[in-house]
Structure formats: structure tokens, C-alpha cells
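Worked Example 4.2. Consider the chain below.
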Amino acid sequence: MMNSSEAPDGARTGEPVPRRGRRTGNSGAREQILAVARRRFLTEGYHAVTLRSVAAEAGVDLALVSYYFGSKKGLFGAALALTGNPAVLLAGALDGELETFPERALRLLLGVWDAPDSAGPLRAMIGGSALDPAVALLVGEVVQREMVDLVAARLGGADARRRACLFGTQLAGLIMARYVLRLQPLAALPADEIARSYLPLLRQALWGRPGGPGGAARLAAPGAAGAPGAPGGGRASGRRH
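Applying the procedure from the previous section yields the following C-alpha cells:
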């Protein structure tokens, strides 16, 4: 007979005991994990849900959740059937040079929203946010924690969160107007033209005050005198006006 000291932790606490190791065959482990995650995200919010708690309720080892989904961002995207997860894309865009981050982020988001296989689930998520307050709260929490806060941490500085929020607002407005409301001619413009119009706005949101990469030159449009990549870009000419 097993005494109390030998009993699994979950048996002593009354919590579900995760199975050890990866399920094999047609166990439906991945679908079970997704079902648990979807319900818990919608009822408890993003912050309260952990990979460990999802694994415990689904009856699988924590390593199996990580194996399938990689991270909580990945699990969230899969639970909401997001083929292209904006939070994951933005995190990847932050890995490069901060100087060129706005262009990377914009082009990645345009790419995922322009692709039919990923745009459908994203539109469904936005539509669900408008119809269901629980979905709206969940999406807002993910945007705050996995996008705005992530950009703010990369920027640094006392007003980093404000600048990161302004940056996110510019992107959200573009997505809503181009892909949800389909306002013309914005909806029909090619990605390169969108980038030319929006990159100055995104740069101003991030570096509209002194202290950011490139200083005041950061506000210039791509290719303009003084803009990064233009002749003399990023350096003061020394000429007084």
C-alpha cells in the first residue's frame, strides 16, 4: 500500500495529475490540450493561464505542451486557430536591429494579413472581439502583455510603454481600416506603398522624442535627406540653419 508520502503531488492536493511522457497513437492529446486552453483563456484571461495548469487539466506532461506549442503565445495562437500569430511575429521582429524594427514589424504583419490562410482566423478573432466581451478582454490582454509590453521592454526609458502603445495603435488602425473595414483606396494599395506611407508614422510613435536611435532624423521618410539609408542619414551635417 502506498503511504501519503509516496502519493503523487496531485493526489495529495486534489489537482489533476499530468501523465508522464508523450501520448502516442490516436490519443488526441493535442486536441485535448487545445480544448482546455481555449476554454481557460476565455474564462480566466491570458495572464492567469499557465502551460503547467493546462497540462495538468489535459492529463499530459508539461513537456508535451511545450513540444506541440513552444510557448504560451504559441498555445494561445493555436487555441484561437491563428495560422499567423501576430504576437509571435512581433517577438521575432524585435530580435534584429532596433533601428529597422518598425519596417520589419510592419512588413511581417502585412504579410500575415495579406495571406488568405492566415487572414481568415485573424478576421474571425477581431470579429469575435466586437461581439463577445470575453474575447475582447482576452485579445486586449494578449496585445498588452505580448506586444505592447514586449516592445516597451526593448525600447527602454521612462516613457517606453507610452511610445510602444502609440506604435501599436498605428498598426491596429491600419489593420482595422485595410483588412476589416476594407476602406478604399487603402485596401487596394500594395505593401510597398503602405510601407512608404506608414513607416514615418511608426517611427514618430517610437522616437518622436529625443533619445531614440537616430534622434530627430528618425522622423524623416525613407529615402529622404537625413533618413537612415539616405546619403548622410543618421548624422548631423554640421550646417546651421
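The chain has eleven helices and no strands. The mean pLDDT is 75. Compare this with Example 4.1 before moving on.
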